[in-house]
Amino acid sequence: MAVGGDELKLLGMFSSPFALRVKLALSFKGLSFQYVEEDLRNKSELLVVSNPVHRKVPVLIHNGLPVCESMVIVQYLDEAFPGAGAPFLPSDPYDRAVARFWASYIDEKLFSAWVALFAAKTEEEKAEGTKQTLAAAETLEGALRECSKGNPFFGGDAVGYVDVALGGFAAWVHAFDEVHGLRQFDAARTPLLAAWLARFGELDSAKAVMPDVGRLVERGKMMQAQAAAAASTAATAAAKTS
Amino acid sequence: MAATEEVTLLDLWASPFGQRCRIALAEKKVEYEYIEQNLADKSELLLRSNPVHKKIPVLLHAGRSICESLLIVEYIDETWPSPSPLLPADDPYARARARFWARYVDDKLFDCQTRLWKLKSGEPAHEQAKEDLVQALTTLEAELGDRDYFGGEAFGFVDVALVPFTAWFHTYEKFGGGVAEELCPRLVAWAHRCKERNSVAMAIADPHKLYDFVLYLKQKFGAK
């Protein structure tokens, strides 16, 4: 429930894993908000004014004040709404540093491997992207083992900061696997992550905001087709100039 | 808890990321052992302390390692909240803005400066790097505005995040990135203001020494 007088508005886009992180955080905290779906090819005045530096989603607008960058927003929610359930970040400075480290890793390594795969034009590039993706998954498996200490989540027995960070990608993991014929969080290679993915997806607060995987698959296929078209245009242009 | 236990910093003299940590530790008056790393031949200690990225800086405290400069600075701020709090304790919105701008320095400024020295001069990609750098500096200049520091009246998190990069202004100019005094005069004035603090003066690199180092990096890692 929104605290008396708090107005929360989220500017997002259905397939953005970063916007999904914020939806998840709001959902887990039981905070109500107004959602605005942005058309990123035709950005709204509000988005441009609220995030003039990057013009990207997500943007959380709290009582008229904009907060940008998904994990900055998640920390902000912890700090601005201390009464709304347990904080995502633990209280110990070292544990906080570890949580932030792994959230950062997810963006730097896992997400960038996906970007490389989506942009891959040659078989070689695809193979490299796949290799990076699987390597990142294995490292995260180790992180989950360490952080969870036998509990279901990175945050222990409750969803924490890293769970929200990875949770934003949960629907995309399924979509991605379908589009690229992968098994990223494979039960044999990364059993803890495979279990985490299933468990996270079953949480009511997660189910309430998860996008439809079918729609993501469509989008993923479209992105793949666009990359292929760009590659063949480039190849044709190169052939003409050589 | 462990605030009085031994602190070690694995670092490289020229690293603006390492300098952030040195500034934060000095602001908090924390004594620590500094161990210069040879990145061409990484030490056992570094590899053990940062197995995921194998990079500096790494802070070792009470037998545990903390990696990634901005995370280290937040850790230092949280473990030693005084003196000199770097993030305002009671203002979630100001904290969010500080985190946003610190990330901007990493995502935009550092990225541009790397392309500026790495790429071949004259190529379109290098011209783009120059443009992007000007854009980044102009944006930071606008964000600072008329204030003494990025956080307002007190030296804080964003100042720590950005000030080591001011030693790079000389290098930017040499690589065609423009003259800082013309592009971002407020930032230049702000840099002088920050350097009056001992923590900053002791940490940031000498601009000429840094330029020589960047030339060495270009020769070793730059586009041929």
TrEMBL record, chain A:
GO molecular function: glutathione transferase activity
EC number: 2.5.1.18
EC main group: transferase
Compartment(s) where it occurs, according to its Swiss-Prot or TrEMBL record: Cytoplasm, Cytosol
GO CC, alphabetical: cytosol
Subcellular location, principal: cytoplasm
Catalytic activity: RX + glutathione = an S-substituted glutathione + a halide anion + H(+)
The GST C-terminal domain, residue ranges: 92-229
Record's keyword terms, sorted: Cytoplasm, Transferase
A Pfam family hit: GST_N
Single GO biological process annotation from the record: glutathione metabolic process
Annotated transmembrane regions: none
Domain GST N-terminal: 6-85
CDD domains, per database record: GST_C_Tau, GST_N_Tau
Family affiliation: Belongs to the GST superfamily. Tau family.
Protein's job: Is involved in the conjugation of reduced glutathione to a wide number of exogenous and endogenous hydrophobic electrophiles.
Protein's UniProt name: Glutathione S-transferase
Organism: Zizania palustris (Northern wild rice)
TrEMBL record, chain B:
Residues of the GST C-terminal domain: 91-221
Domain GST N-terminal: 5-84
The keyword Cytoplasm appears for this protein: yes
Subcellular location: Cytoplasm, Cytosol
Subcellular location, principal: cytoplasm
Catalytic activities: RX + glutathione = an S-substituted glutathione + a halide anion + H(+)
EC number: 2.5.1.18
Signal peptide: none
Entry-linked Pfam families: GST_C_2, GST_N
Family: Belongs to the GST superfamily.
Primary role: Is involved in the conjugation of reduced glutathione to a wide number of exogenous and endogenous hydrophobic electrophiles.
Protein name: Glutathione S-transferase
Taxon lineage: Eukaryota, Viridiplantae, Streptophyta, Embryophyta, Tracheophyta
